[in-house]
Amino acid sequence: MKVVILLGPPGIGKGTVGNILSKKWNAPLISMGDLLRENVKNATSVGLKAEVFMKKGELVPDDIVFEALAGRIKQKDAENGVLMDGFPRNINQAHMLENILNDNDEIVLLNLVASNETLTERLSLRRICIRCGAVYHLKNIPPKKDGLCDICGGELIQRNDDKPEVIARRLEVFRKETEPLIKYYAGKHKMVKISAEGTPEDIIRRIEELGLWG
Ligand code: AMP
């Protein structure tokens, strides 16, 4: 099984790029943020515990995250491989992932990088569908009809944590908690640095040139 981890700060486009790659590579995208938001929306026990942290832009404690993830990676559609967005986010979670994989499973890291201006712009112009979670960008990926999802017609909203004060905290948490993962993984697994500037198509082209899948 191949596990492709999309690593990079909030707003870099992990979800957008991950969704496109998921279709091209016929492998499910496991988005930890989406999984948690779904739990919050359905007021599950995981959701109720996670919500307070998410609102503030803090990481949800590892045991809660793991409860949400448990089982997902073992499902049938993940047999040949998965793309991961937003997990692992710290070294402890990297250990958790290694513990649920087998020795011959392969981990590949796509380390996405972009300037702070690009990230802040992407986060503040991001809108998501309240119904199906599809992601838009008011300038780069606008919906066909203002305020409505192209896919399901649901209402487009701004995520609570895409407000300026929470954005700043999330970027800070990334630098402190998640960036050390790059050092942890370097030399241990295959890791490639990819510029995430430009359009989703630009980023996909850079990734496909690497011939990682198939
Ligand atoms: P994202 O959609 O990836 O930006 O995640 C939104 C929020 O969900 C984060 O700010 C965290 O509060 C929470 N979250 C997502 N993934 C994780 C994770 N692996 N560990 C802890 N918290 C997470």
Please give a structural write-up.
With 214 residues, the chain is of the alpha/beta class. It has a single domain, classed as Rossmann fold. It has 9 helices and 8 strands. It has a 5-stranded parallel sheet with strand order 2-3-1-4-8. A 3-stranded antiparallel sheet has the order 6-5-7. β5 (126-129) and β6 (135-137) form a beta hairpin. The chain is globular and about 50 Å long. It starts with a strand and ends in a 6-residue tail after the last helix. The mean pLDDT is 93. The protein binds adenosine monophosphate.
* Structural class determined from secondary elements: alpha/beta
Number of strands: 8
User: Based on the structure given, which CATH architecture is correct?
Assistant: 3-Layer(aba) Sandwich
Low-pLDDT stretches are none
CATH class: Alpha Beta
What is the overall shape?
A: globular
What kind of sheet is the major sheet?
5 strands, parallel
Widest β-sheet, arrangement of strands: 2-3-1-4-8
Distance between the termini: 12 Å
- What name does CATH use for the topology? Rossmann fold
β-strand amount: 15-25%
Summed up, the domain count is 1
| Order of H and E elements | EHEHHHEHEHEEEHHEH
Mean pLDDT: 93
